[in-house]
Amino acid sequence: MRLDHLSARVEKFGAYSSALEDFVDEHGTVSELFDRIDEDVTDLETRIDGTNEELSAEIDDVRENADDLATEIEHVRDDVGSMREEIATLTSEVRELRSMRESLAAVLAGQDASDESDPVSTSGGPTPTAAHSRRPISTRTKTPSPRRSLGSNPTRATGRRRLAF
User: pTM (2 decimals)?
Assistant: First the structure.
């Protein structure tokens, strides 16, 4: 019985040793395996360090860009504030000009009404005619001169050269 037991153990050991031989053939010895693992760990550490450096550089770039954007935003806010002040000033000036225009229109309307109601001048002078009446306040546009409408050749339209006065 002891012999059977010993024989069974030797068979188990043989099976283990065969499996160990296959493992060593495939992966190498334990020291070779540890050497490869050490190399892999070293390579991995090198890659991680390189990645950390790249990420640090990118983070610095992003921070610089964020600082630049914050500065730009501050400039835009200042510009918007200045524009708001300018708009408020212009709005006030437009209101003043409208008020002045209305006042002038009222004054002119009052003078025109008094001129029309008194057809005979007390000074003995001629009464105002349509040619002498005041023009209403308006935006006047220039009409193009005839010379400009002829283009670059002033003799083209009439065949004669025009004199400019």
Answer: 0.39
Neighbours of 107 (CB within 10 A): 10
Q: Using one digit for the tens of pLDDT, what is the confidence trace for 12-68?
A: 888 888 888 888 888 778 888 889 999 999 999 999 999 999 999 999 999 999 999
Is 90 domain-assigned? yes
Residue 66, in any domain of the structure: yes
Q: Rounded to an integer, what distance in angstroms lies between the CA atom of residue 34 and that of residue 42?
A: 12
- The answer to whether the CB of 134 falls within 8 A of the CB of 116 is no
CA distance 128 to 130: 7
Say how many domains are in the chain. Answer: 1
- CB neighbourhood size of 15 (10 A): 10
Identity of residue 12: K
